TrEMBL record:
The ABC transporter domain, residue ranges: 4-233
Pfam families according to UniProt: ABC_tran
Coiled-coil portions: none
Domain of life according to the entry: Bacteria
UniProt-recorded name of the protein: ABC transporter ATP-binding protein
Gene Ontology molecular function, alphabetical: ATP binding; ATP hydrolysis activity
Keywords: ATP-binding, Nucleotide-binding
Keyword field contains Phosphoprotein: no
InterPro entries recorded: AAA+_ATPase (IPR003593), ABC_transporter-like_ATP-bd (IPR003439), ABC_transporter-like_CS (IPR017871), P-loop_NTPase (IPR027417)
Amino acid sequence: MSLLSLHDMAVSLRGRPVFSGVSLTVGAGEVVGLIGPNGAGKTTLMRAALGLVPASGRSSLADLPARDRARRAAWMPQSHEIAWPVDVETLVTLGRIPHLGAGQSVRPEDRAAVDRALSQMGLQDLRHRTATRLSGGEQTRALVARTLAQDTPLVLADEPIAGLDPAHQISTMQCFQDIAAQGKSVVVSIHDLGLAVRHCTRLILLAGGRLVADGAPVDVLTPDNLRAEFGISAHFVDTPQGPVFQPLEVLR
């Protein structure tokens, strides 16, 4: 089942082409890592898929009414700053808004979704803390929890592990794998290629205004692609604990 379909998408911002000719489909049960050098258009592609920036081509989500779109796809933007001094539980409960009617109170199923999201991100003990008083990494985890509480078939997360310590980077990516195991899907932009290889079922490489490669991590992170698009070499090995990818040196 397709949860997202893009056909021949193109975006130009302030007269500058960002990317063009991007077509892809995201099916159920996938963790799709969106990778590429800085400025490749990863954020813009996700925003275009959601209809948040003008684009040509077609997206299966972009033309939906806002409430319907919010019930099909949860969006976690790159900015991890929390503006309001609400407690963590209230912040995470905001993820349930698309499922509530006008003036409708939070229901038992909404509270269950919030509790589940808090548990997934290890925030149970922080639920009554003021969100703006948390550390940067804790705030990021709270925003991931809000996204998870939305309980949509598809999650689009823009650099959600940036600023997290190694343990929480791993646990967040494992959480995305758990979501995919339930038949949902996650599209996550990520710069840590080691974590991408280990936790993503598929990688999409954007570079030079185009989709360069789309497939299994081992098929995307080839020596040629690493040299041409990232300017690096790397060591890639399978271990009993899973694949390990380590960048080695800059080649340019």
